[in-house]
User: Fold this.
Amino acid sequence: MNVLIVENEKPAAGILVRLLHHIDPAIQVSGIVETVEGTINWIQDHDRPDLILMDIQLDDGLCFEVFETIRLDIPVIFTTAYDEYTLRAFKVNSIDYLLKPVEEQALRAALRKYRGMYASGMVARPDFDRLLGGYSSPYKSRFLVKIGSRYRSIPVMDVAFIHIAEKNVFLRTMEGKDFAVDYSLDRLQSMLDPAVFFRINRACIVPVHSVAEMHSLSAGRFQLVLRGEPKSALANDLFMVSRDKISEFKQWVDR
Assistant:
């Protein structure tokens, strides 16, 4: 059995490795990662493990962001010091939910449960999924972007705006970096939370946290200045709100 450990505390990761080897010396630890982004990159770059032991609170966010960013159907045993995420954990591929400090007896029972479930082919729990069907947010929370041969996970709160340039769609971060995304603006409108994102014209979607100033110009034109963008951007039609959207935009900002 190959196991990936997702744990941001090195002593806790070391304990898990020792427990696994003591329970079954044949278990191979494929890797140890500490962050949401590191987990996504590891899964993209390596052979699929049989099982993941996953902490919930990682250095760059909650582990559930991994499931929201990429398709992940690998079974998971959660190991955490917090008990408030139980329902959310069992909405994804959870085998068991172990509270720290993880005890050998509890881990041994979770591994036995994993073997029993997957040996018998019981890999889905539709009744539980229906029970929690409305628990997860329907909107996108992160973007997975490719940088050369690597991947980076970008939370939606780090998005400055999304725009069309040379017939391609790009996401610009609050740091001012552009990344290509594989969605049309029409598709993104349905994927992003309308309370946070607004399509101001045919070529640009902006989040409310990025709007720094709004200028009413002559001839009914309405121009935005976005955080991190120079004031010279007032001459940029990319940040011009379409006339037919001005009233709706004002209501959106004033929520």
